[in-house]
Task: structure prediction
Amino acid sequence: MHSTSPSFQDDIIHRNQRRTENHSQRSLPSHPPSLSFSDNDYLGLSRHPSVRQSAVKAVQDFGTSASAARLLAGSSPIHRQLEKSLASWKSSEQALLFSAGYLTPLGVIPAIIGPQDTVILERNAHSCLFDGAKLSGARLRIFNRQDTKELQKVLTSTTQLHPSGKILLVVESLHSMDGDWAPLLEIIQLKIQFGAWLLLDEAHANGICGPAGAGLAAQLNCTHQIDIQMGTLGKTLGSSGGFVAASDFIINHLLNESRTFLFGTALSPASASAALASLEIVRSTEGDSLRQTLQQNIAQFTATYPSPLSGPIHFIACRENSTALTASTFLRNLGIDVPAIRFPTVPEGTARLRLSFSSRHTPKDIQNLTSALSILPISSS
Ligand SMILES: Cc1ncc(COP(=O)(O)O)c(C=O)c1O
Result:
Protein backbone atom coordinates (compact mmCIF):
# COMPACT_ATOMS: atom_id res chain seq x y z
CA MET A 1 0.00 0.00 0.00
CA HIS A 2 1.19 3.48 -0.85
CA SER A 3 1.31 5.98 2.01
CA THR A 4 2.31 9.62 2.02
CA SER A 5 5.07 10.52 4.40
CA PRO A 6 3.53 12.83 7.06
CA SER A 7 6.54 15.14 7.00
CA PHE A 8 6.17 15.80 3.28
CA GLN A 9 2.49 16.53 3.73
CA ASP A 10 2.99 18.76 6.79
CA ASP A 11 5.69 20.72 5.04
CA ILE A 12 3.61 21.32 1.91
CA ILE A 13 0.47 22.26 3.87
CA HIS A 14 2.51 24.63 6.02
CA ARG A 15 4.07 26.29 2.97
CA ASN A 16 0.66 26.66 1.30
CA GLN A 17 -0.64 28.32 4.46
CA ARG A 18 2.30 30.69 4.66
CA ARG A 19 1.86 31.74 1.06
CA THR A 20 -1.83 32.39 1.63
CA GLU A 21 -1.04 34.46 4.73
CA ASN A 22 1.49 36.65 2.99
CA HIS A 23 -0.54 37.04 -0.23
CA SER A 24 1.98 35.22 -2.37
CA GLN A 25 -0.13 32.16 -3.23
CA ARG A 26 -0.57 31.77 -7.01
CA SER A 27 -3.32 30.07 -8.96
CA LEU A 28 -4.13 29.79 -12.64
CA PRO A 29 -6.72 32.34 -13.81
CA SER A 30 -9.86 30.72 -15.24
CA HIS A 31 -10.85 33.46 -17.70
CA PRO A 32 -8.01 35.84 -18.49
CA PRO A 33 -9.49 39.23 -19.48
CA SER A 34 -9.34 40.02 -23.18
CA LEU A 35 -7.28 43.21 -22.81
CA SER A 36 -3.87 41.90 -21.81
CA PHE A 37 -0.94 43.95 -20.61
CA SER A 38 0.67 40.84 -19.18
CA ASP A 39 2.15 38.85 -22.09
CA ASN A 40 5.44 39.42 -23.90
CA ASP A 41 4.07 39.30 -27.44
CA TYR A 42 5.51 42.77 -28.07
CA LEU A 43 4.78 42.85 -31.79
CA GLY A 44 1.62 40.72 -31.65
CA LEU A 45 3.21 38.09 -33.89
CA SER A 46 1.78 35.02 -32.15
CA ARG A 47 -1.51 35.86 -33.89
CA HIS A 48 -0.11 37.08 -37.20
CA PRO A 49 -1.76 35.21 -40.11
CA SER A 50 1.48 34.16 -41.79
CA VAL A 51 2.99 32.98 -38.49
CA ARG A 52 -0.06 30.84 -37.80
CA GLN A 53 -0.05 29.48 -41.34
CA SER A 54 3.59 28.63 -41.11
CA ALA A 55 3.01 26.60 -37.92
CA VAL A 56 0.11 24.74 -39.54
CA LYS A 57 2.18 23.93 -42.60
CA ALA A 58 5.01 22.58 -40.44
CA VAL A 59 2.57 20.26 -38.68
CA GLN A 60 1.43 19.00 -42.08
CA ASP A 61 4.99 18.58 -43.36
CA PHE A 62 6.77 17.27 -40.26
CA GLY A 63 4.09 16.14 -37.79
CA THR A 64 3.29 17.46 -34.33
CA SER A 65 6.52 16.58 -32.54
CA ALA A 66 10.25 16.49 -33.16
CA SER A 67 9.92 13.06 -31.50
CA ALA A 68 13.54 12.91 -30.32
CA ALA A 69 16.53 15.00 -29.33
CA ARG A 70 18.22 16.89 -32.18
CA LEU A 71 21.22 14.57 -32.34
CA LEU A 72 18.92 11.56 -32.68
CA ALA A 73 15.93 11.84 -35.01
CA GLY A 74 14.77 15.27 -33.80
CA SER A 75 16.42 17.57 -36.32
CA SER A 76 14.31 18.76 -39.24
CA PRO A 77 15.24 21.16 -42.09
CA ILE A 78 13.13 23.79 -40.38
CA HIS A 79 15.40 23.73 -37.29
CA ARG A 80 18.47 24.25 -39.46
CA GLN A 81 16.78 27.02 -41.41
CA LEU A 82 15.77 28.83 -38.24
CA GLU A 83 19.29 28.50 -36.79
CA LYS A 84 20.76 29.94 -40.00
CA SER A 85 18.36 32.84 -39.95
CA LEU A 86 18.96 33.55 -36.23
CA ALA A 87 22.72 33.48 -36.77
CA SER A 88 22.54 35.97 -39.63
CA TRP A 89 20.11 38.21 -37.67
CA LYS A 90 22.55 38.22 -34.76
CA SER A 91 25.60 38.74 -37.02
CA SER A 92 27.02 35.55 -35.64
CA GLU A 93 28.64 32.46 -37.14
CA GLN A 94 26.08 29.98 -35.83
CA ALA A 95 23.03 29.60 -33.63
CA LEU A 96 21.67 26.69 -31.62
CA LEU A 97 18.06 26.11 -30.61
CA PHE A 98 16.82 24.91 -27.24
CA SER A 99 13.32 23.67 -26.49
CA ALA A 100 12.63 26.51 -24.03
CA GLY A 101 14.15 29.88 -23.27
CA TYR A 102 14.39 28.78 -19.64
CA LEU A 103 16.39 25.69 -20.56
CA THR A 104 18.90 27.68 -22.61
CA PRO A 105 21.15 29.06 -19.82
CA LEU A 106 20.62 25.84 -17.86
CA GLY A 107 22.40 24.08 -20.69
CA VAL A 108 24.82 26.78 -21.77
CA ILE A 109 26.34 28.06 -18.52
CA PRO A 110 27.36 24.67 -17.04
CA ALA A 111 28.84 23.71 -20.42
CA ILE A 112 31.34 26.57 -20.38
CA ILE A 113 32.13 27.16 -16.74
CA GLY A 114 32.73 24.99 -13.66
CA PRO A 115 33.45 24.91 -9.91
CA GLN A 116 36.86 26.56 -10.24
CA ASP A 117 35.30 29.55 -12.08
CA THR A 118 33.06 32.53 -11.25
CA VAL A 119 29.74 33.69 -12.67
CA ILE A 120 28.96 37.35 -12.10
CA LEU A 121 25.25 38.09 -12.36
CA GLU A 122 23.16 41.15 -11.88
CA ARG A 123 21.33 41.20 -8.54
CA ASN A 124 17.85 40.61 -9.94
CA ALA A 125 18.74 38.42 -12.88
CA HIS A 126 16.03 36.13 -14.26
CA SER A 127 15.78 32.86 -12.37
CA CYS A 128 16.88 30.80 -15.40
CA LEU A 129 20.20 32.70 -15.38
CA PHE A 130 20.64 32.09 -11.66
CA ASP A 131 19.66 28.44 -12.03
CA GLY A 132 22.10 27.93 -14.90
CA ALA A 133 24.85 29.55 -12.84
CA LYS A 134 24.05 27.41 -9.80
CA LEU A 135 24.00 24.24 -11.89
CA SER A 136 27.51 24.99 -13.12
CA GLY A 137 28.89 24.76 -9.58
CA ALA A 138 30.82 28.01 -10.17
CA ARG A 139 31.07 30.60 -7.45
CA LEU A 140 28.39 33.30 -7.81
CA ARG A 141 28.99 37.00 -7.37
CA ILE A 142 26.38 39.67 -7.87
CA PHE A 143 26.30 43.36 -8.79
CA ASN A 144 23.74 46.07 -9.30
CA ARG A 145 23.16 46.20 -13.04
CA GLN A 146 23.29 50.00 -13.31
CA ASP A 147 26.38 50.24 -11.10
CA THR A 148 29.45 49.56 -13.23
CA LYS A 149 31.72 50.75 -10.39
CA GLU A 150 30.39 47.89 -8.29
CA LEU A 151 30.94 45.52 -11.21
CA GLN A 152 34.52 46.72 -11.49
CA LYS A 153 35.06 46.03 -7.77
CA VAL A 154 33.60 42.54 -8.07
CA LEU A 155 35.79 41.82 -11.10
CA THR A 156 38.88 43.17 -9.33
CA SER A 157 38.37 41.09 -6.20
CA THR A 158 37.48 37.98 -8.20
CA THR A 159 40.64 38.17 -10.30
CA GLN A 160 42.74 38.83 -7.18
CA LEU A 161 41.24 35.94 -5.21
CA HIS A 162 40.97 33.44 -8.07
CA PRO A 163 43.54 34.40 -10.69
CA SER A 164 43.37 31.09 -12.51
CA GLY A 165 39.58 30.83 -12.78
CA LYS A 166 37.48 31.93 -15.73
CA ILE A 167 34.86 34.67 -15.28
CA LEU A 168 31.49 34.69 -17.01
CA LEU A 169 29.43 37.86 -16.87
CA VAL A 170 25.70 37.35 -17.36
CA VAL A 171 23.51 40.35 -18.20
CA GLU A 172 19.96 40.96 -19.46
CA SER A 173 19.89 43.76 -22.03
CA LEU A 174 16.32 44.81 -21.21
CA HIS A 175 15.38 43.76 -17.70
CA SER A 176 12.29 41.56 -17.56
CA MET A 177 10.78 43.17 -14.46
CA ASP A 178 12.45 46.56 -14.03
CA GLY A 179 12.24 47.44 -17.74
CA ASP A 180 15.61 49.26 -17.75
CA TRP A 181 18.42 48.91 -20.30
CA ALA A 182 21.81 47.59 -19.22
CA PRO A 183 24.79 49.96 -19.61
CA LEU A 184 26.11 47.53 -22.18
CA LEU A 185 29.05 49.50 -23.58
CA GLU A 186 30.54 50.06 -20.10
CA ILE A 187 29.99 46.41 -19.23
CA ILE A 188 31.78 45.36 -22.42
CA GLN A 189 34.75 47.60 -21.59
CA LEU A 190 35.05 45.91 -18.21
CA LYS A 191 34.70 42.42 -19.58
CA ILE A 192 37.51 43.13 -22.05
CA GLN A 193 39.69 44.71 -19.35
CA PHE A 194 39.32 41.67 -17.07
CA GLY A 195 39.35 38.98 -19.75
CA ALA A 196 35.86 37.81 -18.83
CA TRP A 197 33.26 36.36 -21.18
CA LEU A 198 29.82 37.93 -21.59
CA LEU A 199 26.53 36.10 -22.00
CA LEU A 200 23.92 38.67 -23.00
CA ASP A 201 20.28 37.64 -22.58
CA GLU A 202 18.24 39.70 -25.05
CA ALA A 203 14.98 37.84 -24.25
CA HIS A 204 12.96 41.06 -24.00
CA ALA A 205 14.97 43.26 -26.37
CA ASN A 206 15.04 40.99 -29.42
CA GLY A 207 12.64 42.21 -32.05
CA ILE A 208 11.93 45.55 -30.46
CA CYS A 209 15.12 47.59 -30.91
CA GLY A 210 18.19 47.76 -33.12
CA PRO A 211 18.41 47.49 -36.90
CA ALA A 212 15.95 44.83 -38.11
CA GLY A 213 14.97 44.44 -34.45
CA ALA A 214 18.21 42.58 -33.74
CA GLY A 215 18.41 43.85 -30.15
CA LEU A 216 20.46 46.19 -27.99
CA ALA A 217 23.89 44.85 -28.99
CA ALA A 218 23.04 45.44 -32.65
CA GLN A 219 21.72 48.90 -31.83
CA LEU A 220 25.00 49.77 -30.12
CA ASN A 221 27.02 48.06 -32.84
CA CYS A 222 28.85 45.82 -30.38
CA THR A 223 27.57 42.37 -31.34
CA HIS A 224 31.09 41.20 -32.19
CA GLN A 225 32.19 41.85 -28.59
CA ILE A 226 29.61 39.57 -27.04
CA ASP A 227 30.69 36.00 -26.63
CA ILE A 228 27.25 34.44 -26.34
CA GLN A 229 24.04 36.15 -27.42
CA MET A 230 20.97 34.52 -25.96
CA GLY A 231 17.31 34.92 -26.82
CA THR A 232 13.94 33.29 -26.56
CA LEU A 233 11.41 32.47 -29.25
CA GLY A 234 8.58 32.83 -26.72
CA LYS A 235 8.34 36.59 -26.59
CA THR A 236 8.53 38.84 -29.68
CA LEU A 237 9.08 35.82 -31.93
CA GLY A 238 5.57 34.61 -31.09
CA SER A 239 6.47 30.97 -30.52
CA SER A 240 8.29 29.03 -27.82
CA GLY A 241 11.87 27.86 -27.40
CA GLY A 242 15.24 29.50 -26.87
CA PHE A 243 18.50 30.00 -28.72
CA VAL A 244 22.07 31.16 -28.48
CA ALA A 245 24.16 32.72 -31.24
CA ALA A 246 27.95 32.54 -31.07
CA SER A 247 31.12 31.54 -32.91
CA ASP A 248 31.40 28.16 -34.60
CA PHE A 249 33.67 26.72 -31.94
CA ILE A 250 31.30 27.68 -29.12
CA ILE A 251 28.20 26.30 -30.84
CA ASN A 252 30.01 23.08 -31.74
CA HIS A 253 31.01 22.73 -28.09
CA LEU A 254 27.46 23.42 -26.82
CA LEU A 255 26.06 20.91 -29.28
CA ASN A 256 28.29 18.31 -27.59
CA GLU A 257 28.12 19.32 -23.95
CA SER A 258 24.98 21.29 -23.27
CA ARG A 259 22.81 18.85 -21.37
CA THR A 260 19.46 20.57 -21.91
CA PHE A 261 20.18 20.47 -25.64
CA LEU A 262 21.45 16.90 -25.67
CA PHE A 263 18.96 15.08 -23.53
CA GLY A 264 15.54 16.51 -24.31
CA THR A 265 13.12 16.27 -27.19
CA ALA A 266 13.83 19.06 -29.67
CA LEU A 267 11.66 22.09 -30.22
CA SER A 268 8.56 21.09 -32.19
CA PRO A 269 8.75 21.78 -35.94
CA ALA A 270 5.62 23.95 -35.62
CA SER A 271 7.32 26.15 -33.01
CA ALA A 272 10.45 26.42 -35.12
CA SER A 273 8.42 27.28 -38.19
CA ALA A 274 6.33 29.90 -36.37
CA ALA A 275 9.52 31.52 -35.06
CA LEU A 276 11.03 31.50 -38.55
CA ALA A 277 7.97 33.25 -40.00
CA SER A 278 8.03 35.78 -37.13
CA LEU A 279 11.71 36.42 -37.66
CA GLU A 280 11.09 37.20 -41.33
CA ILE A 281 8.51 39.79 -40.29
CA VAL A 282 10.73 41.20 -37.53
CA ARG A 283 13.50 41.79 -40.09
CA SER A 284 11.21 43.35 -42.70
CA THR A 285 9.71 46.80 -43.19
CA GLU A 286 6.54 45.39 -41.63
CA GLY A 287 8.65 44.75 -38.51
CA ASP A 288 9.80 48.40 -38.60
CA SER A 289 6.25 49.62 -38.71
CA LEU A 290 5.18 47.29 -35.86
CA ARG A 291 8.07 48.65 -33.78
CA GLN A 292 6.90 52.16 -34.57
CA THR A 293 3.36 51.36 -33.41
CA LEU A 294 4.78 49.83 -30.23
CA GLN A 295 6.76 53.02 -29.56
CA GLN A 296 3.64 55.11 -30.14
CA ASN A 297 1.74 53.01 -27.62
CA ILE A 298 4.53 53.38 -25.07
CA ALA A 299 4.60 57.14 -25.71
CA GLN A 300 0.83 57.36 -25.21
CA PHE A 301 1.19 55.60 -21.86
CA THR A 302 4.16 57.65 -20.66
CA ALA A 303 2.36 60.87 -21.60
CA THR A 304 0.03 60.07 -18.69
CA TYR A 305 2.48 58.08 -16.54
CA PRO A 306 5.86 59.76 -17.10
CA SER A 307 8.71 57.29 -16.82
CA PRO A 308 12.43 57.12 -17.54
CA LEU A 309 11.78 53.68 -19.07
CA SER A 310 11.65 53.67 -22.87
CA GLY A 311 11.01 49.98 -23.57
CA PRO A 312 7.79 47.97 -23.56
CA ILE A 313 8.04 46.94 -19.87
CA HIS A 314 6.73 49.34 -17.25
CA PHE A 315 5.58 48.91 -13.69
CA ILE A 316 3.61 50.54 -10.94
CA ALA A 317 5.28 50.03 -7.58
CA CYS A 318 2.99 48.67 -4.87
CA ARG A 319 5.59 47.37 -2.37
CA GLU A 320 3.23 45.05 -0.47
CA ASN A 321 1.97 41.82 -2.02
CA SER A 322 -1.55 42.55 -0.81
CA THR A 323 -1.57 45.98 -2.47
CA ALA A 324 -0.41 44.56 -5.80
CA LEU A 325 -3.04 41.82 -5.59
CA THR A 326 -5.84 44.25 -4.79
CA ALA A 327 -4.82 46.43 -7.73
CA SER A 328 -4.54 43.51 -10.14
CA THR A 329 -7.95 42.13 -9.09
CA PHE A 330 -9.50 45.58 -9.48
CA LEU A 331 -8.18 45.83 -13.05
CA ARG A 332 -9.22 42.27 -13.82
CA ASN A 333 -12.76 43.12 -12.80
CA LEU A 334 -12.64 45.90 -15.37
CA GLY A 335 -11.53 43.40 -18.03
CA ILE A 336 -7.84 44.36 -18.00
CA ASP A 337 -5.11 41.81 -17.32
CA VAL A 338 -2.18 43.36 -15.43
CA PRO A 339 -0.36 40.85 -13.24
CA ALA A 340 0.65 41.38 -9.62
CA ILE A 341 4.34 40.53 -9.54
CA ARG A 342 5.54 39.35 -6.15
CA PHE A 343 8.47 37.61 -4.50
CA PRO A 344 10.26 35.44 -5.64
CA THR A 345 9.83 36.98 -9.12
CA VAL A 346 10.94 40.33 -7.65
CA PRO A 347 12.68 41.03 -4.31
CA GLU A 348 10.53 41.09 -1.18
CA GLY A 349 8.95 44.48 -0.51
CA THR A 350 8.99 45.44 -4.21
CA ALA A 351 5.67 43.94 -5.34
CA ARG A 352 4.35 45.70 -8.40
CA LEU A 353 1.94 45.75 -11.30
CA ARG A 354 3.92 44.84 -14.41
CA LEU A 355 2.69 46.34 -17.65
CA SER A 356 3.90 45.11 -21.00
CA PHE A 357 2.96 46.95 -24.15
CA SER A 358 2.49 45.56 -27.62
CA SER A 359 2.01 46.90 -31.12
CA ARG A 360 -1.34 45.10 -31.16
CA HIS A 361 -2.72 47.52 -28.53
CA THR A 362 -4.88 50.27 -29.96
CA PRO A 363 -4.91 53.89 -28.70
CA LYS A 364 -8.29 53.03 -27.13
CA ASP A 365 -6.72 50.08 -25.25
CA ILE A 366 -4.05 52.35 -23.78
CA GLN A 367 -6.67 54.92 -22.90
CA ASN A 368 -8.77 52.24 -21.15
CA LEU A 369 -5.69 51.21 -19.21
CA THR A 370 -4.72 54.71 -18.09
CA SER A 371 -8.33 55.51 -17.12
CA ALA A 372 -8.51 52.33 -15.04
CA LEU A 373 -5.14 53.03 -13.40
CA SER A 374 -6.28 56.52 -12.45
CA ILE A 375 -9.01 55.05 -10.23
CA LEU A 376 -6.97 52.23 -8.66
CA PRO A 377 -8.00 51.81 -5.03
CA ILE A 378 -4.37 52.00 -3.87
CA SER A 379 -1.78 54.68 -3.45
CA SER A 380 1.15 53.65 -5.64
CA SER A 381 4.69 54.63 -4.68
C1 LIG B 1 15.24 37.55 -19.17
C2 LIG B 1 14.61 36.24 -19.48
N1 LIG B 1 15.37 35.24 -19.93
C3 LIG B 1 14.85 34.04 -20.23
C4 LIG B 1 13.51 33.77 -20.06
C5 LIG B 1 12.99 32.41 -20.36
O1 LIG B 1 12.37 32.40 -21.61
P1 LIG B 1 11.10 31.53 -21.94
O2 LIG B 1 9.94 32.16 -21.22
O3 LIG B 1 10.96 31.64 -23.42
O4 LIG B 1 11.34 30.15 -21.45
C6 LIG B 1 12.68 34.78 -19.59
C7 LIG B 1 11.25 34.52 -19.40
O5 LIG B 1 10.47 35.29 -18.96
C8 LIG B 1 13.24 36.04 -19.29
O6 LIG B 1 12.48 37.05 -18.83
